[in-house]
Specification:
By secondary structure, this protein is an alpha+beta fold. It is built from 9 helices and 20 strands. The strands form 4 sheets. The protein has a 6-stranded mixed beta sheet, with helices on both faces. Strands 11-12-13-20-14 form a 5-stranded mixed beta barrel. The chain has a 5-stranded antiparallel beta sheet with strand order 15-19-16-17-18.
Length: about 375
């Protein structure tokens, strides 16, 4: 289909069409479809065993789909061997050759392609400059820091100028501080090369910080695909609401419902006012699961004048059970009269006003921040609040 000016639409860097992968009677990837435009940082986020690595390996050519198609730049690659696909892959343990220098590691793929020596030298110099290690060519791999090894592993792939770079949990083996640093650096490298990255992770913070688009995967299927902001603030399923970010969680039944929202009696007897997630409708009597972000809850001492903007809905009282310090923020755990523990995120300036454990607390949150999802029969057993 052409545009009005006669031009053709640019093909996606990567497209999957109803991809299925079965192992015997087990379906690991279940009718996955996606379209990734050029230059996108796209993450596939999900728990271990959800099928994300199986999908990535099929894109790389290390496995064939049972059915469906995989296209790169509009061309099917299902019958194309891995070494002929315009794709490269960074593994969790990087797979650098310790007996080779940095330059020799980077040159490995170019030599297999029989690239000329002058071209290899030029490309190595260029890619080392772009990753910020222009003088590292003669260094041994064991002389590099963890972050430098990550950059060399990416450089070894990018020197081959792939259309798509696949990254299979490459930060998993790093310590926490280096992992936090590398999240920012990976995003900067992706922008520097302007190459499509497809990143596999079970760590939501990695996906939210780095990605332009995120697909949340569960049991072989995509639950939702969207921007990090869409997944966090507008989850379409209970799985996404629970997997992305922290939430307080209740289960209950709808006792009132109209066009503006619902009122739910939780399993503990608390009445909460919320909205049906994703613009849906819920009927009276429906079993539901409720999610409220800790930062959506405002707290104050009973009798204090509520600050401007404090929600008037879902008011509860309780005792400050614990105050957890976490650097720039704190987490208040409030025990309600029903025995539920409600988690509240507070900036330190706010936390300083409620320092004493056992302090009586009043709290509330808006109905728009109280998202209600229909509860499937298989998951309808009572559940405690999860801070």
């Amino acid at each position: 289909m052409a545009f009005p000016d006669g031009s053709l639409p640019m093909p996606y860097d990567l497209e999957c069409r109803d991809v299925v992968k079965q192992f015997g009677g087990f379906t690991a990837v279940d009718r996955i479809s996606l379209q990734i435009p050029p230059g996108t940082f796209f993450s596939i986020l999900g728990p271990s065993g959800c099928g994300k690595t199986t999908l990535l390996r099929m894109v790389a050519g290390f496995g064939e789909p049972t059915s469906g198609d995989i296209l790169i730049k509009g061309q099917s690659v299902v019958q194309t061997p891995p070494n002929k696909r315009p794709v490269n892959m960074v593994f969790q343990h990087l797979a650098l050759f310790p007996m080779m220098t940095v330059a020799e590691n980077i040159a490995y793929g170019l030599r297999r392609r029989k690239t000329s020596k002058d071209e290899i030298k030029r490309r190595i110099a260029d890619v080392l400059a772009r990753i910020g290690l222009p003088d590292a060519g003669n260094r041994r791999i064991d002389q590099l820091s963890g972050g430098q090894k990550q950059r060399i592993a990416i450089a070894r792939c990018m020197v081959l100028e792939p259309t798509v770079l696949l990254l299979d949990e490459p930060l998993g083996a790093l310590d926490l501080k280096l992992r936090e640093h590398m999240k920012v650096e990976l995003k900067q490298l992706q922008s520097q090369f302007d190459t499509t990255f497809v990143y596999i992770t079970h760590d939501q913070s990695e996906a939210l910080v780095m990605s332009d688009q995120v697909a949340v995967m569960n049991a072989g299927k995509f639950e939702q695909v969207g921007t990090p902001q869409e997944l966090y603030y507008s989850p379409k399923t209970a799985f996404v609401a629970g997997f992305v970010g922290d939430s307080n969680r209740w289960r209950g039944r709808v006792v009132e419902a109209d066009a503006t929202g619902v009122k739910v009696a939780t399993d503990s007897g608390t009445l909460l006012t919320g909205i049906a997630a994703d613009g849906g409708r819920l009927m009276v009597g429906a079993a539901v699961e409720i999610f409220v972000r800790p930062e959506s809850i405002a707290i104050r001492r009973p009798g204090e004048t509520p600050p401007v903007g404090v929600p008037s809905h879902n008011q509860q009282t309780g005792l400050l059970d614990d105050l957890l310090f976490n650097g720039a923020n704190s987490r208040a755990l409030v025990r309600t009269g029903k025995g539920e523990i409600v988690s509240v995120a507070l900036p330190q300036a706010e936390a300083a006003r409620h320092l004493q454990e056992g302090t009586e607390i009043s709290m509330g949150f808006g109905s728009a921040q109280c998202l209600c999802f229909p509860l499937s029969p298989a998951r309808a057993e009572p559940a405690d609040t999860v801070p």
